[in-house]
Design goal:
The complex is a heterodimer.
Chain A (H helix, E strand, L loop, with lengths): L1 H21 L3 H22 L3 E8 L4 E7 L3 H22 L7 H20 L3 H19 L6 H32 L4 H6 L6 H17 L8 H4 L5 H9 L3 H15 L5 H20 L5 H22 L2 H32 L10 H4 L1 H15 L5 H14 L1 H5 L4 H27 L19 H15 L1 H9 L22 H18 L1 H14 L5 H23 L4 H26 L6 E2 L4 H19 L3 H22 L2 H22 L12 H28 L6 H10 L6 H9 L1 H23 L4 H7 L23 H24 L7 H27 L4 H21 L9 E5 L5 E5 L1 H39 L1
Antiparallel strand pairs in A: 1-2, 4-5
Chain B lengths: L2 E2 H18 L4 H22 L19 H32 L8 H11 L31 H4 L1 H4 L14
Helix pairs in contact in B: 1-2, 2-3
Classes of the chains: A mainly alpha, B mainly alpha.
Chain lengths: 944, 172
Amino acid sequence: MITLLAAHLLAAAGAPALVRLLDRRAFLVLALVPAASFAWLLPKVVAGDLVTQEISWVPGLGLDISLRLGEVSGPFSLLVTGVGALVLFYCGWYFKPGDTELWRFSAVFTAFAGAMLGLVLSDNVYVLYIFWELTTVLSYLLVGHNPERRANRRAAMNALLVTTFGGLAMLAGLVILHLTSGTPLLSEIVADPPEATVTVQIAVALALVGAVSKSALVPFHFWLPGAMAAPTPVSAYLHAAAMVKAGIFLVAVLAPAYADLAWWRPTLATLGIVTMVIGGLRALRQYDVKLLLAYGTVSQLGFLTLIASIGTRSAAVAGLAMVVAHALFKSTLFLVVGIIDRSAGTRDLRDLSGLWRLLPWPFAAAVVAGASMAGIPPAFGFVAKEAVLASIEDLGADTGAGWGVVALAGIVVGTILTVAYTARFVWGAFATKADVPPCDIMRRSSWFVVSPVILTAASLVAGFSGPWLTTILGRAGEAYPAGAHELELTLWHGVNLPLLLSLTTIVLGIALFVARRSVAAAQHAITDRLPMPDAEQSYYAVVRGVERVSVELTGRVQRGSLPFYLGTIIVVLALLPGSMLVRAFVLDEGGLDVDLADRPAQVVIVALVIGAAIAAVRSRRRLRAVLLVGLTGYGTAMLFVLHGAPDLALTQVLVETFLLVTFVLVLRRLPPFFSERPFTADRWVRIAAGATVGLVVAGLALLTAASRIADPIGQEFAEPAVSYGGGYNIVNVTLVDIRAWDTLGELSVLVVAATGVASLIHLLTDRAERISRVPSGSGSQRWLQRLDAVRAERRSVVFEVVTRLVFHAVIVYSIFIMLIGHNEPGGGFAGGLIAGLALMVRYLVGGRQELDAAAPVDAGLVLGLGLATAALAGLLPTLLGGGVLQSAIVDIPLGPLGELHLVTSVFFDIGVYLVVIGLALDVLRSLGGGIDQHVADEDQAVGV
Amino acid sequence: MSVDLTLIIAIGVLVACGTTLVLERSLTRILVGFVLLGNGVNLFFIVASGPPGAAPIVRDNGERMADPLPQAMALTAIVITLGVTAFGLALAYRTWQLEGHDDVQDDVEDALVIRRAERDDLSASFDEVDESLPEEEGADLPAVDDEVTDENAETADDEPHNDGAPDAGGTR
């Protein structure tokens, strides 16, 4: 069964390519997938085989792909695939040749069919939910097929919101059912339902909210007529076999376990009858035949939900029969509407006239399908409706419920309306009307009518094969105790109550149709005078309210001001950790053990750092502020050394140097002074905020350090660093092994930042352009070539020569630092920064050309290569039997040279090294070379 | 455990100065403040991790080592600071290029949302409910000018009644 689902998915993925190749005929190929599924499923459903399949997915969460072809899902799956195949086939003639949206539509529609099949086949509640929401999302795309109309967008959004709302409620219910019953399998939950506590009852009610919204029952019925914004084949499928049937399916599956809950039958029966009557009344008021059918579906869905919810043996079988009948006639009717629309160019029954003569086959199909809908023999709809009436008649005997008569009366009223709107449909679409000129039609291919004719034939054949269908559909009834009468699907039961009721409904329905003008007038008079509660209007009021709240909330919290956001953070910091801090100091149990300084040199350095920091705040010159910050950085590095962190100190010094030059590269273009603003009050607020945060953070530092009772974890890192990580420098082993995931994430950040820098300066989305900036043949340049690019008065020959003499040595040294990092201070970050500084010096000597000569590669390439190396180095140990990012130690004998002690994490460090060099290159090319270019361009512009 | 007061003071001052600068409008100042903040927080890591010791490199001399874990964390933080600051500098340069200064302005789009909230308005993307019907083909009709002008006065009556959706390009 999983193969069937996978086939649908693959077909959906390949559909765009197929459409490009075959245009609209691609649908014929796509139809093969559901057709083949139908062929595979048919013998199993007929034979009554119970097929289950289980694929382990996330067993820990009870999330396995459990599929089950059972008594209820069997007939449903046949409808989904059979009708699906015919509708896809029909699409091959419905769409105009060369429709530019077909590639998307075909994929979405095929996936939709697959999702629907998955829904009826899934036994696991979570898998069911996933398919459920898949149909929701895909139907959103199908309904919004033509987004150019505002009404279509709104219809798609309504369908999405309403059914997702229901879906979420259902998910909550299913989760509760899973937890209370201990099994995520629907079949097991239903076979051994958990005790109906209040919790379980709430869960069932929540699941029903999902079913009611999906099946468009009152008060959620309004989304379905709007969904006719979809192309007609979609409507045919959606109304007949898919989407709306999901709710009925869920009700039918849950009914054996929960139909006996006190509120289950009355609630669903009331909703069903109300929906049936409202849908029928609305259908009588439509002029668009497609909309008429859509309201007809609403009405029928009420009927179907009612019968599916009864939960007796005969009702279960009758319900399934009715589902099959409905699928057959409703798909036929929609497909016929599609043909009318395509042939006559309108669907308005005030403009249609004389079509019965012009479109004989669709007319015949519509008459038979209409008979099925109205419950007129010998169509299958009659058989199913008789069975429904019989099972409701037995309601009192089977369940002891006394309101069977009420339900029967409701159904009779609904059915009278059904007969009336069916007559209105057939008359409206095909009859010759005296006051309307006959339509001109455009002849269509005869293949166009194949699908509706097949479906019509099925309606007729099923009508005559009642006994056979009784065996197949009857299996669904075995979950219930035997009822008062054994149900049999057949055309003739003898004269009994159902037959009399059928006759009554047909006669009264036709009478209603004949008197349609006065009925319409009465309807208008009533709806105009009585204020009716309108579900759609309340829904829009809710949507509008949510919209208003979101605007208000966004307006309150999203002020768009950076200082405001930071201020919020500061206030929270001062209030929450700050107040706890004050409390801790006030309570002060242990007493703080403070000494002035561990090492005397610290006092001097800290004094320097403090002075530099305060001066940086006061500075009005950009350059001075930056230099002072650099000073604090170097001071911090020295504090690191004193604390015993040589790696940190090394990196800090290198970063600080690189950053200082980068700042200067940018600041050369910015004005020398900060633009001072006159608000002194603001300034004091900032200083106060800064002082508060400083105090809180210092207090936290004091408290956390003083609260330490255990030894630092470092002592425990030492042993595994050597034995597992294969290195003596614990900090480096931590970076490339113990916390390597962290480092990998950091590398990604660096790549993003570097790319951001480059794109902000070069404003190019295309890196190819940047590669072309690299002078070709740079390798053939002589080593101490004269620099033409730098004007003579700016040159320093000593600087040039020394730089070039030292450059290669520095690069080699950087590689050395990277490689020894595993055992001594160093590593990929330090090595990469040293190489970056070497490149920076080359740039400072001779500008862009010199940088290109030193590194004739694209920065993006280096970045990508670095990230890829690190990632591959992470995967490499898995080949050697380890986990991802685990270090593997390999000793390679090198003969007389001794032994190469190779730790795989060195490759990870090489990746780090490359990423850092790539960052340096991007920064230099952009903030250095790029800005040079802008300066040169400006000079040129001024010169001209 | 005894705590090193000078380092605590250094952290406090660095963070205070950094925060003060970050609250400014000039992007250069914000970046300077960001670097100061970074230095202060990295020191915090080191102080919180315990007393100073030998470099965390395994040697067999029995010396007590400083905690390597926060060092590794601070090391990545230092390099990230470099990347982010470089990006900020590129932003500052670009702002200067476009606006002539490097001040961070309030977001214009957010200001629009605030104005909508004050007017009790709906969001810009909200489709107001109207009477139009869903239809699988065709686009919404462009707003029709209802006023009768001299030009269309004569033709208005002759125009054929068109109920159905107009085909794309089918209107005259």
